[in-house]
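Task: fold both queries, return tokens.
Query 1:
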Amino acid sequence: MSLITNLEHERAKKAWSCVNDVNSKEKDKFKKEYRSIVMKSPTLIIINGLGQTLAFLKSKGKNDENKPEEKLYRNIESWIDKRVQWTASGELMEKIISLPNDKFRYATAETLSFLSWMKRFADAVLPKEGDE
């Protein structure tokens, strides 16, 4: 099995774990809001950049695990922490803004790849806004 296939498999496993955790433990309102922010996040990253999107998630989440934005921020953090060799310590935002350009681009690409799996799984199992 190639390294790329292995990495895709690991992304898929982690994304499924994150989405399944929300699906099995949270109320419908949270599931719908989480699904919505997961579906929007790749576009936000492409338009605004990784740093600004993470800052948005963090500002909306306010360190409250009961908010879907905070949950997604932490899901991204748990994945990206394994994939990037950090030049700084601290919270994800601090690490991201301290990265050199090449590693920042890699972190962005890795986050988008991870979110691609998150979107697939969230779309498959989480209810949409307007679903009863």
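Query 1 returned. Query 2:
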Amino acid sequence: MTQDSNATAVFLPTTMCEPCSGVQHNWRRARGHAELLQGANRREFRDERTVTVTRYQCDRCGAMWDYENNKANQHAGWSLVCR
């Protein structure tokens, strides 16, 4: 069994705040919420193209998120980061 490097974290409902619980996962152009603080950007290769991935952290509950901006993949977007 192999680990996926883009695996999402499993948060208990009491750990994640209500705005984070409402973020739509894996859908490009989905909105985050007002308490997500933008962190660093990085570039990654996906299917012979470069995409930008931006790290965010929730100011309320501390959840870490990555947002992948990949115009070729409608199912890129928000994903929780494993802690």
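Both queries returned. Flag for query 2: Helices lie at 18-21.
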